[in-house]
Design a protein that fits this description.
Helices cover about 30% and strands about 40% of the residues. The chain is an alpha+beta fold. The protein has a single domain, classed as Thiol Ester Dehydrase, Chain A. Strands 1-2-4-5-6-3 form a six-stranded antiparallel sheet. The two termini are about 30 Å apart.
Length: about 160
Amino acid sequence: MSAGRQGTNVRERALSIDNDEIVQRISASFEKQGLMRTIGATLGSVRPGQVEIILTPHAGVSQQYGFVHGGALGTIADSAVGFSAMSLMPSDRGVLTTECNMNFLAPAEGDRIIARGKVVKTGRTLTFCQCELFAKRDDQEQLIALFTATLIAVDGRDGISD
């Protein structure tokens, strides 16, 4: 079976990418997302195959008990894995989530919520990613959720490229 059919080795693909170019591409795309601005999320570290998104809890993203709402957690997790996948793709391709799952492990409360997305396996069309979400308080991190997603590469469709 050819390497294209088996999927691309994530580490090999990441090593072949210019990190400064990826940071610029992901940053520019992140700035286009109105929802990230609306909820107050910011872009953290960006490396080929790995992207971090940070959310500072506030009343606008809380649920009735004062924790960060699961919808806000899913939003930053989905963007973190999407940008992780996009970071390994040519600049003329976009990505869209085709499936995702989230498991909540603890209430989302702290000074910051950090979503760390990473590519697990890339293929010609589909990319599988995971994201760990942490609540950070006083330099201590607590794992609060796990998110997995399958993303599809989109090529040649008007409006979907970066």
